[in-house]
Amino acid sequence: MTLAEFTSSVSKAAPPENLAPPLAALWWAANGDWDTAHKLVQDDAGRDAAWVHAYLHRVEGDLPNARYWYRAARKPEAAGALEAEWAAITAALLT
User: Fold this and answer.
1) Backbone phi, then psi, for 48, in 5-degree steps?
2) Residue 62 is part of which domain span?
3) What are phi and psi of 86, to 5 degrees?
4) Cβ neighbours for 91, distance < 8 A, ≥ 6 positions apart
5) Whether the model pTM is above 0.90
6) In this structure, is residue 1 part of a structural domain?
7) Is the Cβ–Cβ distance between 40 and 24 less than 8 Å?
8) Which pLDDT tens digits describe the chain residue by residue (95 residues)?
9) Is the separation of the CB atoms in 63 and 78 below 8 Å?
């Protein structure tokens, strides 16, 4: 699935089938359902989930918690637009 296809899917009623939890979380986040997105990654020990978890806490405005998750993901702390970060994480996870 390409980034354009994934982004287009956000307008549908449900996420595409068989998405890994971090990608499903990004789909729900794009649909404004932070709680569902957070539940999908909060207990996942993988670095991809940690990266999405960091993004979600940044969306929430909880920067100290976001910093923790960026470290867990071994990713630099994002500082740009949230939309750009969403697209960058999504593109990376789709490859």
Assistant:
1) -65, -45
2) 29-94
3) -55, -45
4) 3
5) yes
6) no
7) yes
8) 999 999 999 999 999 999 999 999 999 999 999 999 999 999 999 999 999 999 999 999 999 999 999 999 999 999 999 999 999 999 999 98
9) no
d(Cα 79, Cα 34) in Å, to the nearest integer?
Answer: 20
Angle, alpha carbons 60-62-67 (nearest 5°): 120
Dig out the tokens for 85 from the structure.
Answer: 């970060």
Does any domain span residue 20?
no
Give the chain's domain count.
1
Q: Using H for helix, E for strand and C for coil, what is the string for the chain?
A: CCHHHHHHHCCCCCCCCCCCHHHHHHHHHHCCCHHHHHHHHCCCCCHHHHHHHHHHHHHHCCHHHHHHHHHHHCCCCCCCCHHHHHHHHHHHHHC
